[in-house]
Amino acid sequence: MHPAFSVLVFTVLSGAGYGLISLLVLAHLAGIPQLQDTAVLLAGGLLAFLLITGGLLSSTLHLANPKNAWRAFSRFRTSWLSREAVFAVLFYPFLLLYLFGIYRQGAELGALFKLAGILAATLALVTLFCTSMIYASLKTIRQWNSALTPLNYLALGLMSGALLLAAVQAVAQGGLAAVLQQLALGLVLLGAVAKLIYLFWIGKPAGSTIHTATGFTQASVRLLDQGHTANSFLNDEFGYRVEAERLMKLRYLMVGLAFVLPFMLLLSGQAWLAPAASVLAIAGLLTERWLFFAEARHVVRLFHGEQHT
Amino acid sequence: MKLGLVVDLDTCVGCHGCATACKQWNTSGTIGPLSDKDPYGRDPNGAWLNRIRTYEVGDTPNSKTVNMPMSCMHCDNAACVTVCPTGASYKREEDGIVLVDQDKCMGCNLCSWACPYGARELDPHQGTMKKCTLCVDRIYDERLPKGERQPACVLTCPTKSRVFGDFDDPDSEVSRLARERGGKQLMPELGYNPVNTYLPPRNKKQQAAYETSGRSVKDTVKQWVNKVIAR
Ligand code: SF4
Ligand code: SF4
Ligand code: SF4
User: Fold this and answer.
1) Domains and CATH numbers, chain B
2) Could A237 and B114 be called an inter-chain contact, meaning their C-beta atoms sit closer than 8 Å?
3) Domain count of the fold of chain A
4) Average pLDDT over residues A122-138
5) Contact A281, A262 (CB under 8 A)
6) Strand (E) or helix (H) holding B67
7) What are the helix (H) ranges across A30-110?
8) Of B48, B86, B116, which has the smallest distance from its Cβ to A74's Cβ?
9) Model's pTM, two decimal places?
10) The domain spanning residue A291 has which CATH number?
11) ipTM of the complex
């Protein structure tokens, strides 16, 4: 699949924002002492707001006819993209109410504001889940059509959120809280394991072949001519090709940037390394998302001569 | 009603006539235009609703060239419709035709990702999704003579390799052909239950292949030269 930059930015940034806000609310309401601090809560909330809003705006850039984007709310019953849009919008009033509560009352929130926080955190995770289901529900792309896709999106969103939360807290208070450090370390491990399982799983041959695609199941089938000498929409969208060697290099880069380096920086416990860890992780996740697209092979490629997906 | 096409892979000669007739009809039809980017330039790229690919099936000398035209299969279980967030894509209750409402589409491409058959292409100028309409603007047009109330691609096909009809009617020509010739669905394992049906090539007597004498090229040439000189 062709990796559209706007979609990479959208899924990574909004994922990090949703992860950040849900962990922030959780840590705040669970009474973790370092998070009973108005400055940390407001800074974290604002950062999540910016990441999510920036991501959503970026996602509209890949629409070829954005003037009809408002109609995307209309098929909630069947379409995961529609569900994502509805939950993404529903999330905002609760986030704003929660942040308003903190602004007015500080960390000691009244019941209404607490409830708004809990709802914002829940809707954040639900939206992230809907995003992942857009990809996971496509039977045409076997690399995506799996429960591992939502698992990866949720794990990586929470992971980058935890790194950002640790960074915000460390910068605001001049020292990294042990509990946030451990949370982030744990989630980096979880994210790495989820990603490695995914990479292992997509490596196994499976799914449709040129034989089931053309209906000639008892003889070899080779493409002689794709029917057009210039390019086509299908080639541009689905025919994206990268050499195996380059994919391998990018996989190593991704594991290093997204998991290994942030883990080591955070393990040092130095407050000033926490922001660096989260920036590296975001860069790593952009690479991860690029690979998620580049390594996904749509079944249309079978009609264009590929023997299997 | 379940309207769709039967495509005969035995007789299709791969002339691209159906694709051209389709583009011609539909560019001024209900979902038109079907625009092209850079049509006379170095790298033209545009929306087509029908594409023909050519395969070699089997190995020489027992191989066969098969031309496979593909347009929307008007699937029973059309995931392209369920994924569409705007409601632009829909499947008609009365005849099963899958259409895109050009006034609602936001050009997110998701339906083209959900389609296994490459049947949807984004219009490069309008930014909306285009696909085969089964020529809905021909088949019901009562101003046309009865025999012409057929899709443009079907009418134009010089070898009559495309047949249009109702698969719900067991006595229709499409149902009969599908039954008698062992019609196949493409990629049935994905569960889309495509309506369009492909008739596999008939088994024909193998043509005797040209036998070479086993001599090298050099010897053959020498022999020719000797023959000429001997005269
Ligand atoms: S062939 Fe593709 S576009 Fe047509 S109905 Fe089936 S899934 Fe939808
Ligand atoms: S491109 Fe248009 S028709 Fe296709 S899913 Fe998006 S809005 Fe629906
Ligand atoms: S039925 Fe009409 S729209 Fe569909 S491929 Fe044939 S000519 Fe094109």
Assistant:
1) 3-205 (3.30.70.20)
2) no
3) 1
4) 98
5) yes
6) strand B64-70
7) 38-60, 80-105
8) B86
9) 0.93
10) 1.20.1630.10
11) 0.94
